[in-house]
Amino acid sequence: MKTRNISLPLYLIWLFVLVFIPFLIMLFLSFTKTRGLDFSHLVFSLDNFKDILDPIYFDAYVNSIVLSAIASLLCLLIGYPVAYILTNLKSNKLKNILLAMFILPMWSNMLLRIIGWEILFNPHSILNSIGISFDLIGSPLAIIIGMVSTYLPLMIFPIYTSLNKLESSLLEASYDLGASKFQTFKSVILPLSLPGIYSGLTMTFLPSATNFALPERLSGGNINLLGNIINSNFGKSFNYGFGSLLSVILISVIFVLVFFINRKDKDGDLLL
Predict the structure, then answer these.
(1) Beta-bridge partner residues of 33
(2) Going from the N-terminus, what domains does the chain have, and what CATH number goes with each?
(3) Are 214 and 147 in contact (CB under 8 A)?
(4) Smallest Cα–Cα separation from 149: which of 113, 176, 198, 103?
(5) Phi-psi bin for 100: left (phi > 0), alpha (psi -120 to 50), beta?
(6) Distance between CA atoms of 152 and 194, rounded to whole angstroms?
């Protein structure tokens, strides 16, 4: 009990310093026009809100939504069957090995994995030695493949957690009432696994839409997403006001989605 009482204030301090204060700083900068953190010529302005509607950024908005939605849907189509198979494996040893295989790649640097895809997608790569040549750099397909391979585990684990919590008695009752396997899946398994699906879609869509390294490397700089716009405003043009505004909007969207997902997940163990 004492350990818990001590850890809670430390957690709140950590949260306040690393999350709340930076958020307030970005919120403040959203209403200013300044170059970098040079406040000598700081001017309060609402121009950043007007810049959001600038047509120059529309392609990035559309690319973020469309490519991330496609990648998230593919993650769902791949991840749900994988999570279902893992849940129904009889051998715990095999199940743990397969789960570890999905976890291990996430321990490696994401940028290294992206560069790996970049090398393979170039027309001149190690694959030439076996007669295979790809020329996908600069295409939406390269970005989608990179997104799916990077964030697929974030779809599998919430769905697996959701399926793993299903009571076997519910399935037995369904079968006893004469339901087929498909009817049981449609009426029992799928509805009860929806919190895991919502969580997985959130955890794949948001990082896909806001990633800047992945489209930068796999598109050769030809396709921009929202993350590239934010990165460009902070790292190149030093327009911290507009970059902060986009960041605040994204963080707000994340908070709203987490709130609704937690309402769907009564146990609160799928997302947080």
Answers:
(1) 43
(2) 31-264 (1.10.3720.10)
(3) yes
(4) 113
(5) alpha
(6) 17
58: tokens are 């529309």
Contacts 24+ apart (CB under 8 A), 258-266: 258/202, 260/198, 261/195, 261/198, 261/199, 261/202, 264/194, 264/195, 264/198, 265/195, 265/198, 265/199
Q: What is the pLDDT of residues 85-134, one digit of tens each?
A: 998 888 888 888 888 888 888 888 888 888 888 888 887 767 666 767 67
CA dist 268 → 3, 82, 138, 228 (Å) = 22, 23, 40, 32
pTM over 0.85: no
Helices (H), 16-139: 21-29, 47-51, 58-87, 92-107, 110-121
In the block, tokens 């030809």 appear at 222
CA dist 87 to 20, 121, 140, Å? 38, 34, 33
Q: What is the Cα 114 distance to its own chain's centre?
A: 15
**Other Cβ atoms closer than 10 A to 215:** 28
Which run of H or E residues covers position 243?
helix 240-264
Helix or strand (DSSP H, E) at 41: strand 38-44
Q: Do 43 and 32 touch, CB atoms closer than 8 A?
A: yes
DSSP helix/strand/coil, 43: strand
Whether the CA torsion 260, 183, 102, 221 is positive or negative: it is: negative
